[in-house]
Structures are given as C-alpha cells and as structure tokens.
Amino acid sequence: MNKLTVRDVEVSGKRILVRVDFNVPLDDAGQVTDATRIRAARPTINYLVERQAKVILASHLGRPKGQPDPKYSLAPAARCLSDLLGREVRLAPDCVGPQVQSLVAVLDAGEVLLLENLRFHPEEEKNEAEFARELASLADLYVNDAFGTAHRAHASTAGVAAHLPAVAGFLMEKEIIFLEKVTATPQQPLVACLGGAKVSDKIGVITNLLEVADKVLVGGGMANTFLKAQGYEVGRSLVEDDRLETARDILARGGDRLILPEDVVVAPEGKPGVPYREVGVDQVPADWMILDIGPRTAWKFAAAVEGAATVIWNGPMGLFEVEPFDRGTKAVAEAMSRCPGTTVVGGGDSVAAVEKAGVADRVTHISTGGGATLEFLEGKELPGVAALNDKR
Q1: Active-site residue, 371 included
Q2: Shared-domain flag, residues 139 and 14
Q3: 292-335 per-position pLDDT tens digit
Q4: What's the number of domains the chain is made of?
C-alpha cells in the first residue's frame, strides 16, 4: 500500500480528526444491535489514546436528509464506544460550530470526543468546501479509518484531506492491503464467487475479475439473468430483462472461466415451509422461482473454492435468510473456511452468511465495506483513498 498510515506521523499531543464508520444498526430503544464497525475502529483509537493524542471522531449514521434528527443521533454509538474503550467518550452537540470548537479547545491529551452526525448538514454529502474547511479547523491531522465510506467523495472523506496532512488508520490500511493482494497480486488459482440479486450491480466487478480470475462462480438472483440469456426458462425468477444482452456479452468474454449453476432449488415463493424441488436448470416450472443453487452446483462451487489459493466472495448464492434456500450459501461459506489460501469476504450479506455458518473466524479477511469493496473490485479509484498522502 502506497499511502501513509497513522504509524508514519507524530500524533502525541496533537488534535487528530478520525473519520470512522459508526453507521451501525439500532433497535427501537436506541441501542446498538451490532457493534462490529465500532469494534473495528478500536485499534486506531487505542493507538492514538495511548500516545496521548486528542482524538476527535467523526461519522455519519443513516440518512437524516441533511438536517438534525434525534433518531439518527450518534449518542448510542458514543455509549457503546465508551463501554468498549473503558473510558468516557463525550458526544458533541454538532460536528461544526462554536460549541464544538470550545469542546475541542478543552480536550485533554488521551481524551476522545465524538462529533454528532455529519449528515445533519447537507454540505457533508455535497463535499462543500467551507464545511470541509470547518471540519479541518478542529484538528492538526486527519486519519481516515472508514473504508466503508471511501467510495464517497464527501467533505469528511475527501474534502478535509485538502486542508490537513491525511493518513490511513489501521482498518483502512488492512482493507487496502488485502484487497490489493487479491486483485493486483493474487496467488493463483484465483476463484471469485459472486452472488446477490442483480447483474447490474456487479457488471464492473465481473468484467474486472474475469481479467485476473481462473474461475468466476455465479449464483444468487444474478445467475437467473445469465441462465435466461443462455435460453433457459426461469419461470417467475428474479430476472433483469434489460440486462440480457449485457449478460450475453459477459458470457462470450468469460468463456469456460464463467461458471453458472447446473441445478437449482425452486419453489412457488420465497417463504418458510413452502414446497420446494431440486431441478436441473432446464427443468424450472413456469410458475415457480429459483431461490438457491442446487446440490450439484453447491458441491462444484465448494470444490473450486477449497482448491483455490485465493478466493474473493461477494454476494449470497440464494435466499439465504430462509431455510432451505440457505444451503448453497452455507456450502460456499464452509468451503471458504476449509480453503488453505487467502480468503476475502465482502458485502453485508456475505458477511452475514459466514457469521450465520459459524466460520467467520476462519476467513482471512472480512471486509467492512459494501459499495467501497465492490468499487475496489471493479478496479475503480476510491476518493477516500486517493485523498490520503502517498508514501514518499
């Protein structure tokens, strides 16, 4: 990775603005239900606290539409982080303005202040120059540790870096190192396993990975569009009819490296307890829908994953939230855990799948990015990464 990190700069006694990703799920009582993203920021925060920096954290939460909304306050994240760090984390009433400036002015070395939701201001998502300047005026140094937002050119991810020395936090560094490793310099054979609902979401990813992968395994709803493009009847399955020509182009380019299901699990609807069948892709009933890859395909995909030196997985193989349509996804997750090579999982549903299968601790790297991971896999430059200072 050719970017400076927090290790490369002096932080002691300095005001450090850290962009974190505390966009976490909350329950009706305002409690954090999954603290994974908050825990992921701890190494960088602890590093700064231990070195007596004055730590100012900034994040967004949800979509408050550019105005203050108590439902999207970061107060629950502040409480959660306080518990995780074992020290008080104060929440500022805003992210810019005189009150925030005053709180920063009295911040002692080793203390942590969390700014209120950045998206309470419309200028954040617009990357408005004056708003970025205001944020930057709070600090001496900027650290981006929010890989999940690195594909957004917002004030707190790109704009601030124009006014301060800008370096990567440990989570950002880890994400870039692993994603570069599996895309730029992968150990061969490289197998990519792609699922999810739509081909349109992953055209760039498929196209880019076909350049470097030995096999690209395609499941999930997106496989239905490819199957229909090949002339198969897919009943009432989810299909993007406006992407059939694109699917044919990808099939022609991919040749025998692009591997589609040979059997599928079908049912009248995607609900628990409905009748289902395992059929060949040429036997889908007209009034049923494809909801998972079939057992032969699951075995084939699992064998390819287990035999790889590098695996990238993004997107479930079927409706994995509902039994029995979770079996294909579970088979891939378990194969990832048995693969002796480097395994990288990206995307919220894929992460949920390896956690549901109980194998998350046996995957080399689980990416915290959704859209950012996809865009990295497409070969795109991420604004939040490009804005960081290069190593000399």
Answers
A1: yes
A2: yes
A3: 999 999 999 999 999 999 999 999 999 999 999 999 999 999 99
A4: 2
Please report where in the chains the tokens 């942590």 appear, as a residue: 112
386 in a structural domain? no
Residues 130, 201: one domain? no
Q: CA–CA separation, 56 vs 46, rounded Å? A: 13
Residue numbers of the domain that contains 304:
178-377
Catalytic residue of the set 37, 54, 300, 330:
37
Position 347 pLDDT exceeds 80: no
The CA distance from 379 to 333, in Å, is: 25
Residues 6 or more apart from 238 whose CB is under 8 A from it? 197, 221, 224, 289, 290
114 domain residue, yes or no: yes
Place of tokens 């309470």: 120
Q: How many CA atoms are closer than 13 Å to the CA of 201, on its beta-carbon side? A: 18
- Which residue among 348, 356, 362, 379 is the active-site one? 348
Catalytic residue among 126, 198, 257, 356: 198
- Pair (55, 152) in one structural domain: yes
Q: Are residues 79 and 29 in the same domain?
A: yes
Q: Which helix (H) or strand (E) holds 337?
A: helix 327-338
Indicate whether 38 pLDDT > 70. Answer: yes
Do 350 and 270 share a structural domain?
yes
Question: What band does 186 get if pLDDT is binned at 50, 70 and 90?
Answer: confident
Note the pLDDT tens digit of each residue in 138-172.
999 999 999 989 999 999 999 999 999 999 999 99
**Known catalytic membership, residue 348:** yes
Secondary structure element (H or E) that encloses residue 181, with its range: helix 170-183
pTM, two decimals, is 0.86
Q: What's CA 105's distance to the chain center, in Å?
A: 35
CATH code for the domain in which residue 341 is found:
3.40.50.1260
> Does 384 reside within a domain?
no
Q: Do 220 and 133 share a structural domain?
A: no
- pLDDT (tens digit, 9 = 90+) per residue, 220-245? 999 999 999 999 999 999 999 999 99
Let me know if 346 is a catalytic residue. no
Mean pLDDT of the residues in the chain: 93
In a domain, 235, yes or no: yes
Catalytic residue among 66, 235, 371, 379: 371
State yes or no: is 37 an active-site residue.
Answer: yes
